[in-house]
Design goal:
The complex is a heterodimer of chains A (374) and B (329). Chain A is α/β, with parallel strands linked by helices. Chain A contains 18 helices and eleven strands. In chain A, 39% of the residues lie in helices and 19% in strands. In chain A, the strands form two sheets. A six-stranded mixed beta sheet of chain A has the order 4-3-5-6-11-10, sandwiched between helices. In chain A, strands 2-1-7-8-9 form a five-stranded parallel beta sheet. In chain A, helix 9 links the parallel strand 5 and strand 6. The longest helix of chain A is centred in the middle third of the chain and has 17 residues, at 222-238. Chain A starts with a helix and ends in a 16-residue tail after the last helix. Chain B folds into two domains: 34-143, PurM-like, N-terminal domain (60s Ribosomal Protein L30, Chain: A), CATH 3.30.1330.10; 151-316, PurM-like C-terminal domain (Phosphoribosyl-aminoimidazole Synthetase, Chain A, domain 2), CATH 3.90.650. A seven-stranded mixed beta sheet of chain B has the order 9-11-8-12-10-13-14. The radius of gyration of chain B is 19 Å and the shape is globular. The chains are: A alpha/beta (374), B alpha+beta (329).
Chain lengths: 374, 329
């Protein structure tokens, strides 16, 4: 932890903030792509410390939030079936489908289990040959390789009762969709470091050129975020639009070749619907033809699902950076983590959840070092 | 499941379902234990149930928890715990040797805490209807004259002290339950705190609030106190003692140490003029050696806990909803 602590050092943070303040001459709007970055920003109060006019717009980078309602309903339907063990990462359990969530399915007797790795789900399949074990494979390029590995292993080890409900998404097409929107205000991107640690940076120069936006690959600790902002602002002030890597301790230009090979083997690119945004061409992955036996969508007949999205929920606009969470009328009133209308309020990386958790009551200013006793 | 997590959902269940059904002024106080007048004395009375899995974990067992949990609930009202009851709910098929080990651990913990198990009960449920062993303990203690410790007594100006490093129990349980290892082994902090409370009361009989931050962690305890007293709490985040292993595990799983359970820690709201003496008394006790001032009680933002982040920003520390869920990436 000493290592991580270095990236939260208040003195170094102060230096970076001073540098940012010294550079900014006019208003700029930056988008942090990843929900993990949003939470760091709000949890540490980084947005409160930036100079006036330098705005952070929260991006669509929360995999739980962008998983389409239809896919959640499909998961709920499969998880409810007798003889199915439905495995998922923890943060999907409270995400609302049209009329319930995975917790509710478990309460109703469904065998829903939280796992920490897709390989845990594979192990459960080996240990329960009489059950159908389904893993909910969601996430960006970060979680896709281990999920691909689990399917690869299932095929290799002939674990026939293991399948995956796949809803993986890719970041670069989402950046394109945001920049193509007529309402787009984004002038630069803090790219998601974890995604780039897998995929490298080669997909980004074409985007930086086409849309004339700086893209700075950024990590997740407070100093990473500040360094990302500092470099982005420097480019904007100079009129540049390059791809920069401010996260070299994790990201190499070529990414992780072994992980990319695994992705290429197991998945194929497909159009994918994003919750609140709509279909983005070539923005997702599905299992490729030769792994179809392990595709839960094919194994379970769950077509013809009709979804009901709450009309008041504006999470789509939040995900595109068009409004801040607290600009939604339902925020903190009809929509809370206890009664979420959308996934952005319930996901641990959701922007609405970050605002509700850390800001919702209008956080009062606390005097610096208001400390009573040494 | 969230209704048992010690967070907002637990509080709703108690406030909306149990309290109206049971009635009574004492329950309305909703402290860790009830303080009752008996003759010229005041007794504290508390009960708790234990459904932990696995039954044995690094640093303790369900038997230790069953004693220490109830002893601590009594101690948090300043009482001197004396007697415990113990109910065993056994699942058909559980090994007798396991029952024996749990009973041994329970007896040893009671001796360490200086309390006696004076009555008990055993029930057996069918196989598949329990996790081996569930325990319930209830306890009685005597509240010394002049001591009045309850959440409603927090006052602006009070200094907030935590007795040591937080998050150890929750991370220890997670590490064995989920088969996760976080580098150095993490042991639960499970311990009886009545001795530490006695040492604190010896220098400050007018302590305002004590609370053991179990399920829901420090965040839940501070929020409950802020709500009960109608005061605000300001926490200096970097003063909160978080051990490296806990910080590491939480960073990996996307959890916040402020919300992770403890079983051998307390948080105290102390009149400002007594803070130095209380802190010294705590640090002189083995269970309070790493005690630290983490913040203060304020008149602003009543009912709300606010943290000053190490970078100089501020954030709300809310009551957790239910259990924390590990994130996807």
């Amino acid at each position: 932890m000493k290592y991580l602590e270095e990236f939260q050092n208040p003195e170094l943070a102060r230096g970076l903030l001073e540098d940012i303040r010294a550079q900014v001459t006019r208003p700029w709007a930056l988008m942090e792509v990843c929900g993990g970055q949003t939470h760091t920003i709000i949890r540490h109060g980084i947005d409160q410390l930036l100079p006036e006019g330098l705005e952070l717009i929260h991006g669509p980078g929360c995999p739980v939030c962008v998983t389409p309602l239809e896919m959640i309903d499909r998961a709920l339907e499969i998880a409810s079936r007798p003889g199915v063990v439905f495995c998922s990462f923890g943060d999907m359990l409270r995400v609302p489908g049209s009329d319930r969530d995975l917790f509710r399915v478990r309460g109703e007797g469904g065998d829903v289990r939280v796992v920490y790795s897709p390989l845990d789900a594979l192990r459960i399949a080996r240990e329960n040959p009489d059950k159908e074990v389904v893993f909910f494979g969601i996430g960006f390029e970060t979680t896709a390789p281990p999920n691909a590995m689990a399917v690869y292993q299932a095929q290799k080890q002939r674990v026939r009762n293991f399948s995956m409900l796949v809803s993986h998404v890719r970041v670069p097409p989402a950046i394109e969709a945001i920049m193509e929107s007529p309402d787009c205000r984004v002038q630069a991107f803090l790219a998601a470091g974890h995604v780039c640690s897998v995929m490298g940076t080669e997909e980004y120069p074409v985007l930086a050129d086409r849309y004339r936006v700086p893209i700075v690959v950024t990590g997740f600790e407070p100093l990473d975020i500040l360094e990302g902002i500092r470099r982005t602002v420097r480019q904007l002030e100079r009129g540049e639009h390059r791809v920069e890597n401010a996260y070299p301790r994790a990201v190499r230009p070529e990414g992780n070749p072994a992980a990319r090979d695994m992705l290429e083997d197991v998945f194929e690119v497909t159009d994918r619907a994003w919750r609140g945004i709509g279909v983005i061409p070539r923005s997702g992955w599905r299992l490729s033809e030769r792994y179809r036996d392990h595709d839960a969508e094919y194994r379970f007949d769950v077509r013809g699902i009709t979804t009901r999205e709450p009309a008041q929920c504006r999470s789509g606009e939040v995900l595109q950076g068009l409004i801040k969470p607290n600009q939604c009328e339902a925020f903190g009133t009809t929509c809370t983590p206890r009664t979420p209308l959308g996934a952005t309020m319930v996901s641990s990386e959701g922007a609405c959840a970050a605002y509700y958790l850390y800001r919702r009551l209008g956080t009062p200013a606390v005097p610096l070092e208001a400390s009573p006793v040494a | 499941m969230g209704h048992g997590g010690g967070g907002a959902m637990s509080a709703e269940l108690v406030e909306n379902v149990f309290a109206p059904a049971f009635g009574g002024l004492v329950l309305a106080a909703l402290g860790d234990s009830a303080t009752l007048p008996v003759g010229g004395e005041r007794i504290a009375f508390s009960t708790d149930s234990f459904v932990v899995r696995p039954l044995f974990f690094p640093g303790g067992s369900i038997g230790d928890l069953a004693v220490n949990g109830t002893v601590n609930d009594l101690a948090m009202s300043g009482a001197r715990p004396l007697w415990l009851s113990c109910g065993f709910i056994l699942e058909e098929g559980v090994e007798m040797s396991v029952v024996g080990r749990v009973a041994q651990a329970l007896g040893a913990a009671a001796r360490t805490a200086g309390v006696e198990v004076v009555t008990g009960d055993t029930k057996v449920v069918e196989a598949g209807r329990g996790d081996g062993i569930y325990l319930n303990t209830a306890g009685i203690g005597i509240v010394p004259d002049g001591v009045d410790i309850r959440p409603q007594r927090a006052r602006p100006g009070d200094v907030v002290i935590v007795s040591g490093e937080i998050g150890l129990h929750g991370v220890a349980i997670m590490s064995v339950r989920e088969g996760l290892e976080f580098g150095a082994a993490v042991e639960s902090d499970c311990a009886a705190l009545n001795g530490l409370v006695e040492a604190m009361l010896a220098v400050a009989p007018d302590l305002h609030v004590l609370r053991d931050p179990t399920r829901g962690g420090l965040a839940a305890a501070l929020n409950e106190i802020a709500a009960a007293a109608g005061v605000g709490v300001v926490v200096q985040e970097r003063r909160v003692p978080v051990p490296d292993q806990v910080a590491n595990a939480c960073a990996i799983l996307g959890l916040d140490p402020m919300y992770v359970a403890n079983e051998g820690k307390l948080v105290a709201f102390v009149p400002r003029e007594r803070a130095d003496a209380v802190l010294a008394a705590m640090r002189a006790h083995p269970l309070g050696a790493a005690a630290a001032v983490i913040g203060e009680c304020v008149g602003e933002h009543p009912g709300m806990v606010v943290a000053r982040t190490p970078l100089g920003g501020t954030r709300v520390i809310d009551l957790p909803l239910g259990e924390q869920l590990p994130r996807i990436c």
